Structures are given as C-alpha cells and as structure tokens.
Amino acid sequence: MAKITINGKDFDVEAGKNMVDAAEDNGIEIPHYCYHPGLSIAGQCRMCVVEQEGNPKLQIACNMRCSDGLKIRTDTEKVQQAVKWNLEFHLINHPIDCPICDQAGECGLQDYYMKYGKYHSEMREEKVHKEKAVDLGDKIVLDKERCILCGRCVRFTQEVSKTAALGIYNRGDRSVIGTVNDAPMTDNYQVNTVDICPVGALTSKDFRFEQRVWFLDEVESICGGCSKGCNVFVHHKSGKHIYRLKPRYNPQINDYWMCDAGRDTYKNSNYDRRLTQARLGGVEMPTSEAIQIWAADLKTLVAMEQTDEIGIWLSPQLSNEELDSVFKLFAKEWGISKFFSENVQSLVDQDAAVDGLLLRKDPYPNSAGFLQAVKLHKVICKSTETLAEQLKKSKIKHLIVFSPEGGRARDEGSKIANALGSNAFSVLITPQLQSADDYPQALAIPSLSHLEKSGTLTNHAGQTQIMKGGFNMFKEALSIQDILGKLGEEYRKPLDSERKLEARL
Amino acid sequence: MKLLDNLTRRFYFATALKGLAMTGRHFILNLLGITKRHTIQYPEQRRKYSNRFMGIHVLTKKPNNEIACTACMLCATNCPAECIHIVAAESPNTRVEKYPAVYEIDLMRCVFCGFCEEACPVDAIRMGRDYEYAELSERNFVVGIEYLMSRPALKGRNVSVYHETDKIVKSSLQVSDFKKAS
Predict the structure, then answer these.
(1) CATH, domain A271-504, list 2.40.70.10, 3.20.20.10, 3.40.50.740, 3.40.50.970
(2) Which helix or strand (DSSP H or E) is residue A412 part of?
(3) On the CB side of B16, how many CA atoms lie within 13 Å of its CA?
(4) Cα angle vertex A66, ends A62, A67, to 5°?
(5) What does each C-alpha distance from A103 to A200, A204, A403 come to in angstroms?
(6) Which residue on chain A is closest to B95 by alpha carbon?
(7) At what angle do helices A287-303 and A480-492 cross, to 10 degrees?
(8) What's the average model confidence in pLDDT over A274-285?
(9) Which helix (H) or strand (E) holds B177?
C-alpha cells in the first residue's frame, strides 16, 4: 500500500498502480485519450497532465506509478488551462461532423469538451482534410479525418491481437492511421479497436448508422458464443431490438476484450431470426394454446403409463436454472428417463482455445454446468445418434426438443428432424425461426433468446456467472421456466377429450 | 334563507329567459353587422397568420435538390411527442455519407412545438405554414420524405438551404476525387 495525496486529500492505494486508475478508483477523473488500462503506456495525448509537488513542470499521470508520499493536484489553474488548450490542439483538424458520426454520444472529444474545454476556437486556418469512410475489411470503417492519433488501436493490434495490422503513417498534420495499402483487416478481434477508439475514427460496419447511442439501454450479460463466457453489455432499444454487444471488464475472463464472432451472436435475438408465434404444423396460435395441446398429449401418455415413450433433447446452451427446472419437472415429477443431448463430455474434453486469446472450440456457454446438472439430478444423457436410432425404431412417440440458437442448432436439428417420422408428436422449444422451419410438423413454442434470459452459466473453467437479461422482445416468447410452469398448470387441469383428439390429429 | 332559496328555485324560468335574451341580442347585433364578427367565410376567406406560425414541417433541400437532412436524429431525440421516425442509411451519393432512407412524421402525434426545427444542426427541417390537412385514414397522417420535401403546397416556395455543412460536403468531394485518382 502507498499513501498518496490528490488535491489535498489522502488516499491509500496499491503501490505501483497507475495514477489515472488510482484516481478513478477514488472518484477523481483525470482526462485521457491514449491511455488504456489494457494496453501499454504511450503518453501521446498529454490530456492527463497533473501538477506534482516538487516538480516545476506538469507531468502526465498515465506514466506515473503510485508510491508513498506522492502528492499531485488536478484542480489548479495551470492544469485546467493545459487540459483545455490541449483539447483544442486535438480538435484542430477534427471535422466535428458529429451529426453523421456513430461515436456521437459516447465520444471522448464531446465529453471532454463539455467538461474541460468550452473554449472558442482560435484557429482561422482551413482544417486538413483526409480520407473519409475508408473500408478496412468487412467489419470496420475508418475515418482518417476524425482520428486524433492516440494510437490505442495500433497498440491493440501490436500487443493484444498481435496482428500489427494498423499503424500510423506520414508525419505532422498529415499523419493518418491505416493498414498497409489499405489492406483489409481479417482477424477475429478487430472490432475491439472500435471499442477503444476514443473518437469516431474507427466505427463498426455492423452498427454503422443503425442507431444513435443515446437511445440504447444497457444490460449486463454473458456472451453465448463459446465456453469462454465473456462478460458483455447488451445494447438494446427499449427491449425491442438488440443493436450490439460490447465487452464488459472482467480481469479473470476476458479483460477488456471480446471476439468478433461473439459480437455477432446478438443477431440471433432479433426479429428476422426469431420464432415469434407458437405454431403447430405451420398454423400459428397463442403460446398458451400451444401449451394446452402439449399438456394434453403428455397427459394421455402418462395416463396410459407410456412415459417410456417420451424423449427429451437438451442443449448445453440452457442456463443452469433452466436445466434445473427441466430435470425437476420431467425427471423428478414425471419420472421420464430418456434424456438426450449432444455428446457434451467430448465437447468439454476437446475444448481448447482456438487462437490463444478468447475464442474456444466448445460452441456452448454452459457445457460444464450441463454436466454438473446431469450429475446432480442423476439422469443419464444419451447422444443425438441414439435418439435418432430410437426415433427410427418408433420407440419414442413424444419428443421434446430444447433447441439452441445459432448455426449449431441446424446441424444437430437436422439429425433429429431426419429421423423424426410422422408418428411421433414433437414439441420444439426454441427462440430461433430456422429451427422451427426444420421441424415443420412440430409444435413449436417460442422461448427467450440467450441475451434476454436471466440466469447463471458455468464456463469452461468452472466459473459461474450471472447474466441479467430481463427484457422480453416478443410478447409470445416466454422463458423456459415460464413455459414449464404453465405446462405444469395445464397438466393438473382435468383432461379435455376434445383437446386430446386435436392433439393427436 | 330557506324561503329565498325556494323562490329562486321556483322562478328559474326568469333566469332562462334572461339567457335567451342575451343569445337573441347577439344574434340580432351580428345579423345587422353592428358588432365585429369573429367568424369568417373559411374556404374563400382566409385568416392571416403571423410569420412565426408553425404548420406542417418542411424538409429542406440542398442546391442540388438532394435532401439536406443528415439523419443525425437530433430532432427525433428532442421531439416531446416522439412522432419522428428516421432510418439512416448510406447515401447513394458518394459525396454524402449518411442520409435518411426513411423520414416519417406522424402528424397526428405531432404537437407542432417546433423543437425539431430548433434541434436541427443543418437547418434541414423547418416548420412550414400549411395547416390544412384532412385525411380519411389515420395512416395517411404519417407522412414521409416525399410529402415533407416536395408536396404540392410547397411549389414555388424556396426550401433550399445553403449552409456550412455544404462546405464539408464539398471538401470531402475533393478527398474522394483524390481517392479515385490514387
């Protein structure tokens, strides 16, 4: 521990800690552009200047390590003037095209101008014009004019993604960020440069002109793209449409970063990929009605003591809570023993980091939690191939599929759907429209997509994390717990012979 | 007190007559044109409104007849009635980056406060002077770019705008020309 003094107040901080971080932890903001806690120190922007006792010149806080007796001031006239006119230097050649800039609303220049600037520009010269809207591959658009040359993106590609794709070219006011010959960036971590860009120089193509950021709401969640379990923020507009995912800082798992493949997973939640209405054989109906039909069919089977003919296929994309409620209802209450899933054990065994950074092989976010739940509830989970065999032999007459979202759903789904004859009644619980199309005869019930859910997930390292979710984009789509709760309610109601007939037809 | 109350209740007829006399007096005075009439023969006769009157919005054009709006959505942000719906997109014109692919105002929701006009950084939306709009369906009150920018009522009116942003557009033209050459 080190005792430091900021603006006359004493603080106990970790010795050797970066001053910008130490001040921020104690509620004192030191403005900075080029400094990023996940990257090395460049000292390029000179925005973080502070006055240090015993030193006649202003010092940059980002290059200052906390040590005992260090005394700094951020509130003196000298510091304020330095920051203010520094900002003007940054803005000399900045086009200030905020109306068409996607960064507007979360832009470092806007924020600091309102906090520390508010000067009248003293520049009379024409701004230097550079290329706008330069295409840097399929994910990033570069605006060379807006860049303030802080070099964060350059350091990111050198230190974290290690592609060294970006660099600063030319000198003086002609300096620009770019790739060699404007070659496209191709790696899986490039959108992180958009996140760390303090201005609108690097913007995401996927989010380009989609929405102004001040309309977006933020929810903490966990990425469902692989078994890494990266912490993310879901940015959605009033629970109607998800616009993007942003990484959320977690030093134990993903630090400040996330991969581009994970970022794309939000698309599975939006309208064009979602099953928004329950349907049976292509006919749409309210979810409550679908659950009634389902309950009636289950009930006839249970009444005829044919619970052996009920099979359930699960996906390790379900959260721990969902798995728990599935096993509790079907295994414990109704004594169903035929559970199937992908070979999760082998997925876990073969799981490894794909590129040494974040992305992992196992495409499910909760494989470890799935194995734990299976163990806890003492059920036996057989493979998809076994299910296909049993379906072909007509050993299963009532199949319940908890289908995941994403491309994986198709691969596994086709195995089941091909084996599924017309003699089995199948119930599909899925958020995804594609899965519902794969099972045209099934009773498809819409459920919540991964990012809307609240629950816990256990990642490859056994860390259990909470995703807050808690919004519902489509009225008819329910959480799996709600669906099972309603199923239980319907199940307890007296049997309606007419409904039973309908279900069998 | 009770007696008086009873009496007034019984003789309400007198008050009614008094009211009727008032109506009659105004009727006759108006008929003879003695007092100033507040009504006008509307479609033929029109009232003069102040220059600051805020009617149906106008989307302005740049000198090259393109829409001036850059789809920054500040009008939609500032709108207290939430009646503006904008979908931004990449402009087909290579000199312009962002433009509104859809710009809709729900005139039924609009309260004609003029906040959109105030918020606009490029003078792309102005409150017009038209106030006559009648439609058969509610849906028709949701008007798009076509109506806001070039409805018949705007014919002959100057809705083009030249301002600082044109400078930016021009300078980026030079840059993009440079880009093509290199």
Answers:
(1) 3.40.50.740
(2) helix A407-419
(3) 6
(4) 145
(5) 5, 10, 37
(6) A132
(7) 50
(8) 90
(9) helix B164-181
- Residue ranges per domain, chain A? 2-91, 127-269, 271-504
Contacts of A105 in chain B (CB under 8 A): none
| Mean pLDDT, rounded, for B26-50 | 86
Q: How much of chain A is helix, strand and coil, in % rounded to 5?
A: 35, 20, 45
CATH class held by domain A2-91: alpha beta
Structure tokens at A15: 């010795």
What pLDDT does residue A377 have?
92
Average pLDDT of the residues in A268-283: 91
CATH of domain A127-269: 3.30.70.20
CA of A89 vs chain B CAs: smallest distance (Å): 20
Q: Comparing C-alpha atoms, which of A149, A143, A137, A130 is closest to residue A181?
A: A137
Contact A205, A195 (CB under 8 A): no
Q: Where are the beta strands (DSSP E) in chain B?
A: 57-59, 84-90, 98-106, 125-127, 142-143
d(CA B177, CA A253): 46
Q: Which residues of B touch A104 (CB under 8 A)?
A: 72
Which residues on neighbouring strands pair with residue A72, listed in sequence order? A6, A52
**Closest to B119 in 3D by CA, of B166, B159, B70:** B70
Q: Take residue A368 and report the two structure tokens written for it.
A: 């470890």
**Of A256, A292, A319, nearest in space to A427 by CA:** A292
Please state, in angstroms and rounded to a whole number, the distance separating the CA atoms of residues A246 and A161: 17
Q: How far is A194 from chain B, CA to nearest CA, in Å?
A: 19
Q: Return the SS3 of A152.
A: helix
Per-residue pLDDT tens over the stretch A115-157: 999 999 888 889 999 998 898 988 999 999 999 999 999 999 9
Helix (H, G, I), strand (E, B) or coil at A411: helix
Q: What's the ipTM?
A: 0.84
Inter-chain CB proximity B121 and A212 less than 8 Å: no
Structure tokens of A166? 């970006």
User: Which amino acid appears at position B176 of this protein?
Assistant: S
Please indicate, yes or no, whether the overall pTM of this predicted structure exceeds 0.95: no
Task: Tell me which DSSP letter residue B167 carries.
Answer: H
Residue in chain A lying closest to B121 (CA) = A99
